[in-house]
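Schema walk-through. Below, the input block comes first and the output block second. Nothing else is stored per chain. Lengths vary across the set, and this one has 90 residues.
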Amino acid sequence: MAFEGMDIGEVESLGHQLMNQGNTIQTVINAIDGIVNTMESVWKGPDATEFMGWWQSQHRPALVAAETAVHGLGQSALNNVQQQIEASSR
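--- output ---
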């Protein structure tokens, strides 16, 4: 017989883990911002401008999108837990 339904405690834990991983991505973004900002004082010229532009226009937005997506997954799991609790209490 296959299990169907939700282990509320486990899904809630996993939702929080996803939220924490989203926070970790934000920490990485902040760290890279600091590194790139430091580079501006030690690297000048068109190659430096292009390099820093890649971070600002391509890589940083991709990481921000990943952070948003992971947070969204975590929040969705937590929302489903809440819905399950409400449905079970009826």
